[in-house]
Amino acid sequence: MSITNSVVAIYDTHEQAEHAIKELQEAGVDMKSLSIAARDTHTDEHVVGYYNAGDRMKYWGKVGAFWGGFWGLLFGSALFAIPGLGPILVAGPLVAWIVAGLEGAAVVGGVSAVGAGLVSIGIPKDSVLKYEVALKTDKFLLVVHGTPEAVDKAKNIIGGTEHSSYAVHGETVFA
Asked: What is the mean pLDDT of residues 35-59?
């Protein structure tokens, strides 16, 4: 029986990430199992705003329409100012994993709060370091976490999208 199951993909552009999310949604992947994270690198070039409007988050910035659309689709949203990474926009359950990591002081040596959130769902630290480098270099991180079947379905869809790389993470325990 598998206890941790995730597929993590790296995208170079928000258009590529958006296309992948639309493909996943059209295929019936549960949007509550999906997270996206990226660095907000354009804060010095554009007016940036982030606020709560009822039950929806709003974002102004260079890719505001991109984030605004996903914050309506995905479960949870946040903007974190993370030392070493800068401002990170996050949507999906990764928000809760990051907060839990921060509240539990579970930040693993050598990784950021984003990394601690990923480690908490079973992603190996060496992979997490790769994902943090992707964020530092303005890439988009897409995470689907769920049952082995759901992750396998997402992996097949992600494999057909224009990504930089992707990896499946899981640990099987036989009782």
From this structure: 56
Give pTM, 2 decimals. Answer: 0.80
- How many Å is the maximal CA-CA distance in the chain? 55
Is the separation of the CB atoms in 123 and 116 below 8 Å? no
pLDDT band at 68 (very low <50, low <70, confident <90, very high): low
The 3-state DSSP class for residue 70 equals: helix
Q: What are the start-end ranges of the H helices in the chain?
A: 14-26, 64-73, 94-103, 113-120, 125-136, 148-159
Q: Considering the chain, what is the average pLDDT of its residues? A: 77
